[in-house]
C-alpha cells in the first residue's frame, strides 16, 4: 500500500505503551480529561478533568535506562484543584473543570503548577516527604497520654525515614480578576509573572502577588452589541519576556510588545491569512476561529490550530503561514451536520515535539495526526486498546474522502464524532506522546530499532 | 533536679542581657524550683508541652512553640540545643511558611543559646535549609538571620564555616539557593583573606550571568550593596562590567534593577570617573525600549540626581528628565511628574531658576493638559511645591494659570490634589489670589456624584477653613458643610459631623453657638428620622468642643425631648448620646434631667433602647 510505504520510509514508528483510565463505555462527566501538560523535563505529566481534579503521573525512574519501557508513567499525586462554586452576585454557577495547567520552571526540589478553571487560577506545590518526626514527651507515639509525673527528662523529637509521601498544597489563589471565562494561562520567561486570558481580556500577574493584576489587553467594546470577536488563546514567547500573542475567533493572531506601553491595546504585529474566496461559505468564519496557539521551543515560529488545519507561522512574516497542514479536510463537505451537532465548535489543541521538527493535533474517531515538517509527510494514528498490542508498531489509519473505499480505509460517514481527541502532549525531549480521548489517556513511544 | 535539664541556664544568660529570657514565665519557674532545690519534675512540664507542640497538627500551636524556641533551648541547655534541637529544626522545612518564617527569625537571635560566638556556626545548617525554600519571605528572613549571625563569627570561623556555606548556596542546583547566596557575599567579604575575597568575587560574577532570570535579578539587586564593600579598584574593574552587562540584560526585569544599583555605584565612584563608567549605562537606561526600565529611572530620579552631582545633572539629567516628562507611556510620565518638585529643589542653586524656567516649566505646562488623568493628578500633587522655589513673581505669572487650570480639571482627583496642597501657595502669594477659582472648584467637588470624592473634599474643609479665615468660610462654605449633614450616604453624614467638630475646635465655641448649633438643633424636628439621628451624632461630636454651658443649656433639652421619638433607633441613640455627653454636664443636670429620662427609656418596649439606656445608667453611675 502506498501510504504505508511512505510511512515505513521515515524513521518514526509508534507503539502504544500504556492506556490509562476506565474501560467502561459509560463515561462519567467528571472523568472527562480537559487538559494535559508535561513539565519542563518530561518526568511529570499533569492531567486535569471536568471534575476539577488533577492527576500527576511520573515517569518510572527505574525504567528510564531501559529504552523500551521508558514511557511508563504511573500516578504520582492526585488532588482536587477546584470545587464547583456559585457566584451569588451574578447568579452564575462556576464549574470546577480545569481549563489549563501550566508548570512553573522548577525552583527547588518541589514542583509547582498553575491550574485554572473559568474564573480562578491556583498555584499548587507538589512536594515529597520521606521523614517524619518521632518522640513526644507527654504521650506515646500512638497518642495515649503518659502520666506527667513519669516525665523526668525532656525529649526532643527526631526525624526518622518513612515511606515516601507526595503532598499537593495550594500556595496561592489568584481570584476575582476575570469577568469572562479563562481560556489560557502562560508563564513568562522572567519566571516571575504570568498572563491569564479570558474571552475579552488578558491580565498580567506576579506569581507572588494575588490581590492585584494588571489588565494588558481589553477588547471589550463599549457596547456589547458591537462585539465581533473574542480572544481564544494567549501565550508568552518562550524567551523574549516582552512578547506575547493572542489568537481570536476571527482567525487572526496579534503579537504585542509589553515594552512599548503598559496597556497593549495596539498590537505590534498581526498575523492573518487572506481568505480564499473560492472556499467562502456560511461556515468560513466559524472554522477559521483559532482554537490554540503555541510558540515553537526555538521561539522562531508559532503554530495555530483552526477547525480544519494547522498552520505554522514565521514570526517575521505576518502575511501568510509558512506551512499549512490539513488535519481532516474531508470534513469540509460535512460542515453542515457538524454545525448541527455543535462539533464545529470543538476546540482542538496542538503541540510541538522537542526539536520543533514535528507537530501533532487531534481529530475525530479517536484519530490524531502528526506532521513531519522536514520530510513533509503526515500520518493518522488511532488511540485504541483494541487495535494496538503493547510494543507493537501501530498501523496508520486512512480516511476515504470519497470515491471507492479501499481495504483498511474508513469512510467519512462511519467516523464517530463523539470520540474526539482535543488534547495532546509531546514529551519536551523524548519521543513520547500522550493523547487524551474522552476519559482515557494513551501514551505512545517511538519504536526502538 | 535531674541531669536531663542539661547544663541549665548559665548566670550570664540570665543576667538580663538577653531579652528572650525575660518573657518566659516557664523559665522563671524553672529557676525558682532549681534555687529552692525542689523536685524539678513539675517544672519540666511546661517545657515538655512546648516541645511536643513543635509537632502539633495545629499550625497555631506549632507557631506558638517556635516563637518560644528560646525557652526550649534554655531548658535544654546549650549542649542538647546543639546536638538535638538544631538537627530537628534543620529537618523541619516541610512546615507552613509562617512557621518557617518565625523559625528563620528566631535563629538569628540564637547565638547565646547554642553556647555563644564560639558555637554560632551550629546555626548554619538549619538556616541553610531555610535559605532554599521557595517562599521568598522565608528565604529573605533566613538570609537576614544569616547576615546577622555572620557578625558573630570569628574571622577564622567565617572562613571555615560561613564562607563554605555561601559557596554551597552559590553553586546550588536550585535557583532558590543561588538567589539566597547573593545576599550573603557583602557580609563576609570585608572579613576574609584576599584569596577568599577573590573567590567571592568570582562567585558573584558567575551569579550575575546565571541562566535563570531570578538569580540575575537577585544579583542585580545586591550589586550596589556588594560594590560598597569592595575595594575601589575592584569596583572599577569588576563591578562596572557586571553592572554594564546586567543593564543590558535581555530580561526587562533584570535591566530595571540595574537602575537601582546605578545609584549606589555612582555614589562610590569619584566624580571624574562617573562620565566614563556610569553615564553611558544610565543614558541607555533612560532611553530603554521598555517602559518599565524608563519608569524605574523616573522613579529613582531624585536619588540618581544626588548620586551624580550638580554638573552631570545640569548637562545630562535635565534633558533626560525632559524626555521622561514627555515619554510616550503615561506610567513613565506620571512617575516623572511625581518627581518634578524634588528634582527642581535639588538643582544647583546658581542655575536653578533658569533651568526650571527654560527647561522644566514648558514640559510641566504640557502635562497640565495631559490626556491621562493619573499623570495630571501626579503633577497636581507636587506642582504647588514649585511656588516656594520660584518665589512670588514667577508664581503669579507662570504657576498661577496652571493651578487655575488644574482647579478646573475634569478629573476630581486633580482638583483635590491641588486643594490639598494649598498651604504651599498660601505661604508665597496668599490664598486670596486663588479664592475666586477655588470656590467653584470646591462647590463642584462638594456636589460630585461620587461619594468618595465628596468624602475627600470634606476632609480638607478644616484646612481650608484655617487658610481662608472665618469670614470667607461663613460666607461661602458654611452652607456646604451643613448640606453634607443631610447627604444620602451615611459615610458623608458621618464625615460631616466630624468636620463640624474640627471647625469648632478651630473657630471656637462662640462661633459654634452662633452659626452651627442652631442649624444642627433645628434638624431635630426633621420628618426624616435619619436627619434627626444626625442631630444626635453632631451633639456627640460637638459637646466637648462647645463646653458645659452650651451643652447643658442648648443641646441637652433637645436630646431629652427626642427621648419621646416614635422611632426606636432615635430613642436608643438618645441613650447613647446621653452617655456620651454625660461627662460634660454638671451633676445637677445629670441627676435631675438625665436620670429620669434614662430610667424611662430603660423600661422601653424596645429591647435595644432598654439595653443602651441601662448601659448609660451604669456608665454614668446613675443607678
From TrEMBL, chain A:
SMART domains from the UniProt entry: WD40
Entry-linked SUPFAM superfamilies: WD40 repeat-like
InterPro entries recorded: PP2A_PR55, PP2A_PR55_CS, WD40/YVTN_repeat-like_dom_sf, WD40_repeat_dom_sf, WD40_rpt
Keywords: Repeat, WD repeat
UniProt GO molecular function: protein phosphatase regulator activity
GO terms under cellular component: protein phosphatase type 2A complex
Gene3D superfamilies per record: YVTN repeat-like/Quinoprotein amine dehydrogenase
Pfam families: WD40
Record flagged with keyword Ribonucleoprotein: no
Top-rank taxon, per record: Eukaryota
Family from the record: Belongs to the phosphatase 2A regulatory subunit B family.
Complexes and interactors: PP2A consists of a common heterodimeric core enzyme, composed of a 36 kDa catalytic subunit (subunit C) and a 65 kDa constant regulatory subunit (PR65 or subunit A), that associates with a variety of regulatory subunits.
Protein name: Serine/threonine-protein phosphatase 2A 55 kDa regulatory subunit B
Top-level taxonomy: Eukaryota, Metazoa, Chordata, Craniata, Vertebrata
TrEMBL record, chain B:
Keywords, ordered alphabetically: Repeat
Entry annotated with the keyword Repeat: yes
Entry keyword Magnesium: no
Matching InterPro entries: 2AA_helical, ARM-like, ARM-type_fold, HEAT, HEAT_type_2, PP2A/SF3B1-like_HEAT, PP2A_Regulatory_Subunit_A
Domain Phosphatase 2A Regulatory Subunit A helical: 123-304
Matches recorded under Gene3D superfamilies: Leucine-rich Repeat Variant (1.25.10.10)
Any one Pfam family match given in the protein's UniProt record, by short name: PPP2R1A-like_HEAT
Coiled coil: none
HEAT repeat extents: 46-84, 123-161, 200-238, 239-277, 278-316, 317-354, 360-398, 399-437, 438-476, 516-554, 555-593, 594-623
Superkingdom of origin: Eukaryota
Domain Phosphatase PP2A regulatory subunit A/Splicing factor 3B subunit 1-like HEAT repeat: start-end pairs: 310-391
GO cellular component, one term: cytosol
UniProt-recorded Gene Ontology molecular function terms: protein phosphatase regulator activity
Record family assignment: Belongs to the phosphatase 2A regulatory subunit A family.
Listed name of the protein: Protein phosphatase 2, regulatory subunit A, beta a
Species name: Myripristis murdjan
Lineage: Eukaryota, Metazoa, Chordata, Craniata, Vertebrata
Amino acid at each position: 500500500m502506498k501510504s504505508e510505504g511512505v510511512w515505513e520510509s521515515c524513521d518514526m514508528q509508534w507503539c502504544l505503551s500504556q492506556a490509562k483510565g476506565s474501560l467502561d463505555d459509560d463515561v462519567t462527566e467528571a472523568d472527562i480529561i480537559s487538559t494535559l501538560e508535561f513539565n519542563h523535563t518530561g518526568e511529570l505529566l499533569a492531567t486535569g478533568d471536568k471534575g476539577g481534579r488533577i492527576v500527576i503521573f511520573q515517569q518510572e525512574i527505574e525504567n528510564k535506562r531501559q529504552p523500551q519501557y521508558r514511557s511508563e508513567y504511573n500516578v504520582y499525586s492526585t488532588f482536587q484543584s477546584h470545587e464547583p462554586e456559585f457566584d451569588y452576585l451574578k447568579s452564575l454557577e462556576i464549574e470546577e473543570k480545569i481549563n489549563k495547567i501550566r508548570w512553573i520552571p522548577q525552583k527547588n526540589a518541589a514542583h509547582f503548577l498553575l491550574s485554572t478553571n473559568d474564573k480562578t487560577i491556583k498555584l499548587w506545590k507538589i512536594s515529597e516527604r520521606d521523614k517524619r518526626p518521632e518522640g513526644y514527651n507527654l504521650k506515646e507515639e500512638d497518642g495515649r497520654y503518659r502520666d506527667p509525673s513519669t516525665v523526668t527528662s525532656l525529649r526532643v523529637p527526631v526525624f526518622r525515614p518513612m515511606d515516601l509521601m507526595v503532598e499537593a498544597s495550594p500556595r496561592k489563589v489568584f481570584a476575582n480578576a476575570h469577568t469572562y471565562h479563562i481560556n489560557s494561562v502562560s508563564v513568562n520567561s522572567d519566571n516571575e509573572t504570568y498572563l491569564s486570558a479570558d474571552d475579552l481580556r488578558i491580565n498580567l500577574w506576579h506569581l507572588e502577588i494575588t490581590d492585584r493584576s494588571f489588565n494588558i489587553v481589553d477588547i471589550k467594546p463599549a457596547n456589547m452589541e458591537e462585539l465581533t470577536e473574542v480572544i481564544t488563546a494567549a501565550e508568552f514567547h518562550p524567551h523574549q519576556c516582552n512578547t506575547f500573542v493572542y489568537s481570536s475567533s476571527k482567525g487572526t493572531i496579534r503579537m504585542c510588545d509589553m515594552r512599548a506601553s503598559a496597556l497593549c491595546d495596539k498590537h505590534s504585529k498581526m498575523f492573518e491569512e487572506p481568505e480564499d474566496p473560492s472556499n467562502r461559505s456560511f461556515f468560513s468564519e466559524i472554522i477559521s476561529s483559532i482554537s490554540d496557539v503555541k510558540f515553537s521551543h526555538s521561539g522562531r515560529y508559532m503554530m495555530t490550530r483552526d477547525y480544519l488545519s494547522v498552520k505554522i507561522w514565521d514570526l517575521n512574516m505576518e502575511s501568510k503561514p509558512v506551512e499549512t497542514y490539513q488535519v481532516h479536510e474531508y470534513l469540509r463537505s460535512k460542515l453542515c451536520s457538524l454545525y448541527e451537532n455543535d462539533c464545529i465548535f470543538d476546540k482542538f489543541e496542538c503541540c510541538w515535539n522537542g526539536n520543533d521538527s514535528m507537530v501533532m493535533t487531534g481529530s475525530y474517531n479517536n484519530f490524531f495526526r502528526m506532521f513531519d515538517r522536514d520530510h513533509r509527510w503526515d500520518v493518522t494514528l488511532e488511540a485504541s486498546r483494541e487495535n494496538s498490542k503493547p510494543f507493537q508498531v501501530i498501523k496508520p489509519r486512512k480516511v476515504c474522502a470519497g470515491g471507492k473505499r479501499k481495504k483498511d480505509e474508513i469512510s467519512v460517514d462511519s467516523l464517530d464524532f463523539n470520540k474526539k481527541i482535543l488534547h495532546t502532549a509531546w514529551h519536551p525531549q523524548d519521543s513520547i506522546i500522550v493523547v487524551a480521548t474522552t476519559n482515557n489517556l494513551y501514551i505512545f513511544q517511538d519504536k526502538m530499532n | 533536679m535531674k541531669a536531663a535539664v542539661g547544663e541549665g541556664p548559665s548566670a550570664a544568660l540570665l543576667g538580663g542581657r538577653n531579652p528572650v529570657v525575660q518573657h518566659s514565665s516557664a523559665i522563671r519557674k524553672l529557676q525558682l524550683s532549681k534555687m529552692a532545690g525542689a523536685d524539678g519534675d513539675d517544672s519540666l512540664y511546661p517545657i515538655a508541652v512546648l516541645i511536643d507542640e513543635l509537632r502539633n497538627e495545629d499550625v497555631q500551636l506549632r507557631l506558638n512553640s517556635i516563637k518560644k524556641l528560646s525557652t526550649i533551648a534554655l531548658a535544654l541547655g546549650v549542649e542538647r540545643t546543639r546536638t538535638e534541637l538544631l538537627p530537628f529544626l534543620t529537618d523541619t522545612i516541610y512546615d507552613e511558611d509562617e512557621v518557617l518564617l518565625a523559625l528563620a527569625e528566631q535563629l538569628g537571635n540564637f547565638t547565646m543559646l547554642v553556647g555563644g560566638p564560639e558555637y554560632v556556626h551550629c546555626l548554619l545548617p538549619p538556616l541553610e535549609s531555610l535559605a532554599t525554600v521557595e517562599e521568598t519571605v522565608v528565604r529573605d528572613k533566613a538570609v537576614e538571620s544569616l547576615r546577622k549571625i555572620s557578625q558573630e563569627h570569628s574571622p577564622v570561623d567565617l572562613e571555615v564555616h560561613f564562607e563554605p556555606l555561601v559557596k554551597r548556596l552559590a553553586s546550588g542546583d536550585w535557583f532558590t539557593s543561588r538567589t539566597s547566596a547573593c545576599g550573603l557575599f557583602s557580609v563576609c567579604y570585608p572579613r576574609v583573606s584576599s584569596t577568599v575575597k577573590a573567590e567571592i568575587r568570582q562567585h558573584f560574577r558567575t551569579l550575575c550571568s546565571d541562566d535563570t532570570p531570578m538569580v540575575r535579578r537577585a544579583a542585580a539587586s545586591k550589586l550596589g550593596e556588594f560594590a560598597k564593600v569592595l575595594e575601589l579598584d575592584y569596583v572599577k574593574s569588576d563591578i562596572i562590567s557586571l553592572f554594564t552587562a546586567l543593564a543590558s540584560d535581555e530580561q526587562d526585569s533584570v535591566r530595571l534593577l540595574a537602575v537601582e544599583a546605578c545609584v549606589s555605584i555612582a555614589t562610590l565612584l569619584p566624580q571624574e570617573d562617573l562620565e566614563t563608567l556610569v553615564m553611558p549605562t544610565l543614558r541607555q537606561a533612560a532611553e530603554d525600549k521598555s517602559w518599565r526600565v524608563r519608569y524605574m529611572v523616573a522613579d529613582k530620579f531624585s536619588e540618581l540626581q544626588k548620586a551624580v552631582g550638580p554638573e552631570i545633572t545640569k548637562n545630562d539629567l535635565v534633558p533626560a528628565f525632559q524626555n521622561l516628562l514627555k515619554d510616550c507611556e503615561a506610567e513613565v510620565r506620571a512617575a516623572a511628574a511625581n518627581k518634578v518638585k524634588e528634582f527642581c529643589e535639588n538643582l544647583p542653586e546658581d542655575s536653578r531658576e533658569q533651568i526650571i524656567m527654560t527647561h522644566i516649566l514648558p514640559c510641566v505646562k504640557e502635562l497640565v493638559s495631559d490626556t491621562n488623568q493619573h499623570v495630571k493628578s501626579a503633577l497636581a500633587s507636587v506642582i504647588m511645591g514649585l511656588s516656594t522655589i520660584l518665589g512670588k513673581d514667577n508664581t503669579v505669572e507662570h504657576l498661577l494659570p496652571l493651578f487655575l487650570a488644574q482647579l478646573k480639571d475634569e478629573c476630581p482627583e486633580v482638583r483635590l490634589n491641588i486643594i490639598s496642597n494649598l498651604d504651599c501657595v498660601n505661604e508665597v502669594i496668599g490664598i486670596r489670589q486663588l479664592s475666586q477659582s477655588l470656590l467653584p472648584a470646591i462647590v463642584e467637588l462638594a456636589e460630585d456624584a461620587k461619594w468618595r470624592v465628596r468624602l475627600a473634599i470634606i476632609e480638607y474643609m478644616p484646612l481650608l477653613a484655617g487658610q481662608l479665615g472665618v469670614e470667607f468660610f461663613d460666607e461661602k462654605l458654611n452652607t456646604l458643610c451643613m448640606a453634607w449633614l443631610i447627604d444620602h450616604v451615611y459615610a458623608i453624614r458621618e464625615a460631616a459631623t466630624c468636620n463640624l467638630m474640627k471647625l469648632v475646635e478651630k473657630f471656637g465655641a462662640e462661633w459654634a453657638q452662633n452659626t452651627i448649633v442652631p442649624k444642627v438643633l433645628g434638624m431635630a424636628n426633621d420628618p426624616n428620622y435619619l436627619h434627626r439621628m444626625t442631630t444626635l451624632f453632631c451633639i456627640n461630636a460637638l459637646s466637648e468642643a462647645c463646653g458645659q454651658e452650651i451643652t447643658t443649656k442648648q443641646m441637652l433639652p433637645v436630646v431629652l425631648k427626642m427621648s419621646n421619638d416614635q422611632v426606636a433607633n432615635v430613642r436608643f441613640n438618645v441613650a447613647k448620646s446621653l452617655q456620651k455627653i454625660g461627662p460634660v454636664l454638671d451633676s445637677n443636670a445629670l441627676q435631675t434631667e438625665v436620670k429620669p429620662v434614662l430610667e424611662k427609656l430603660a423600661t422601653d418596649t424596645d429591647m435595644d433602647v432598654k439595653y443602651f439606656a441601662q448601659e448609660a445608667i451604669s456608665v454614668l453611675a446613675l443607678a
